[in-house]
Amino acid sequence: MAAKELKEFTLEDVAQHNKPDDLWVVIDAKVYNLSRFKDLHPGGIAVLADEEVAGQDATDAFYGLHRHEVLERPQYKRLQIGTIKGQKSVIYDEIAGEVSKVPYAEPTWLSPGYHSPYYSDNHREFQRVIRTFVDEVIYEDAQAHEEDGKRPSQIVFDKMAEVNLHAMRLGPGNHLKGRTLMGGIVKPEEFDYFHELIITQELVRIGARGYGDGLLGGKVIGLPPVLNFGSDELKAKVIPDVLAGKKFICLAISEAQAGSDVMGLQTTARLSEDGKEWIINGSKKWITNATFADYFTVGCRTDDGLTVILVERGPGVETRHIKTSYSTAAGTGYITFDNVRVPVGNTLGEVGGGIFVILSNFNHERWVMCCSSARSQRSVIDECLKWTNQRKAFGKPLISQAVIRSKIAGMIARAEGVQSWLENITYQMTHMTYKQQAQKLAGPIAILKSYSTHCAQETARDAVQIFGGRGITKSGMGRFIEHYYRTVTFDALLGGAEDVLADLGVRQAVRAMPKNARL
């Protein structure tokens, strides 16, 4: 169908159409005929018939009540009949891959005119391609399924597999050898933790917390124990299908009786009489991706202590949804194991050595969550700066109020501080072996996660105050703020509660105190 030809009008022309049955408005130099739409307007006819709207330039009025994305929808785009002669639109639809020009909406290294010692030209090109991929392939699916609660679409998993995103989300390592990463932009041997940081932070931009975890967050924490501690036979069976997005895996540690207290796990595994199988009984709770997982990396209590075992979905394994504050797209579930028989070859690491397997996984998991928290705080700053500049109160833009500027200053300070500390730790990771990271960074990462999620909750609270009623409304101007405020506590709990991690960091520091240190 040919595009509708748009005519040019003057503001005087538009002003003649100011009656309910003949109603035009101007929004950002575009002329819209709302005569037939008025009865469908969610806010009623009175809003459109107002003398400051009907036949007038209603740009400020529109953006005081609506997000720009409303104008992008086909049913509203077709209401445009022309443009204003001599004027040009200054507000445009988002371009896939584009970097925001809103101050502090991007990390410093992505902001024009700024520099960073951490990121190379390759990192910058990699970021551009990742952002474009997320905008074009993932964003719309995320918005749809965050709302309907269904897991991410298989086509998204497949497209991620085509560019080896599933593999890259596990960080640098031998699992990347021989793979073409994002069309060959980065070589497997050159992929580092800053590339992984970029992936995590770009994925967070979708603004859909439950869907984000459903985007195989369980794999990010559930597959590394197989990768690092599984037998060659087990790895050959499991890893290819999981990295291809054909099979799914999750980490099953938490229980109703044991959250941060890993040593308190009650799920048991005992050897069969012939010693060839584990027989597992127990339950797990709040497990990300559990409802659609094919494999479960399970922490069990055995005669020799804690042991981690890979369980394949089958007889005796049942899962069901747990409804939490975010979308069921995450697949958060309750798992029961009823006399589940598993080959002893599925043991990950040493029998009785499960605590080492579990703890070795925590550093990376918590670091990933710090990456997410840092970036999500910037998205809130972006929303708040846009809103306070376009929203008018008491006859002035909201940003003219000192108390509002103070809240935003706090948001900026927290986001910049978290990102800087995160990049420093990431730089250490690129120069340390996995063992050195476990020795040197467990404490710093724990405190960073505790601090970053605490900052995030402060930012969420302030953002709601700035948006007012819209900040607690699931649709409209404040929908991303409402969503953030409702789901921000997930990061504060998953991977270890704030207080527990803060204490861990200090205990690690005390352990490293020199014997001769005195005032």
TrEMBL record:
Q: What is this protein called?
A: Acyl-CoA dehydrogenase
Start and end residues of each Cytochrome b5 heme-binding domain:
6-85
Taxonomic superkingdom: Eukaryota
Matches recorded under SUPFAM superfamilies: Acyl-CoA dehydrogenase C-terminal domain-like, Acyl-CoA dehydrogenase NM domain-like, Cytochrome b5-like heme/steroid binding domain
The lineage is: Eukaryota, Fungi, Dikarya, Basidiomycota, Agaricomycotina
Similarity comment: Belongs to the acyl-CoA dehydrogenase family.
Q: Which GO terms describe its cellular component?
A: cytoplasm
> Could you tell me which CDD domains the record lists for this protein?
ACAD
Cross-referenced PROSITE patterns, in alphabetical order? ACYL_COA_DH_1, CYTOCHROME_B5_1, CYTOCHROME_B5_2
Single Gene Ontology BP annotation: fatty acid beta-oxidation using acyl-CoA dehydrogenase
What keywords is this UniProt entry annotated with? FAD, Flavoprotein, Heme, Iron, Metal-binding, Oxidoreductase
Q: Mind telling me which InterPro entries this protein's record contains?
A: Acyl-CoA_dehydrogenase, Acyl-CoA_DH_CS, Acyl-CoA_Oxase/DH_mid-dom, Acyl-CoA_Oxase/DH_mid-dom_sf, AcylCo_DH-like_C, AcylCo_DH/oxidase_C, AcylCoA_DH/ox_N, AcylCoA_DH/ox_N_sf
Which Gene Ontology terms cover its molecular function?
acyl-CoA dehydrogenase activity; flavin adenine dinucleotide binding; heme binding; metal ion binding
Q: Which cofactor does it need?
A: FAD
Q: Which Pfam families match?
A: Acyl-CoA_dh_1, Acyl-CoA_dh_M, Acyl-CoA_dh_N, Cyt-b5
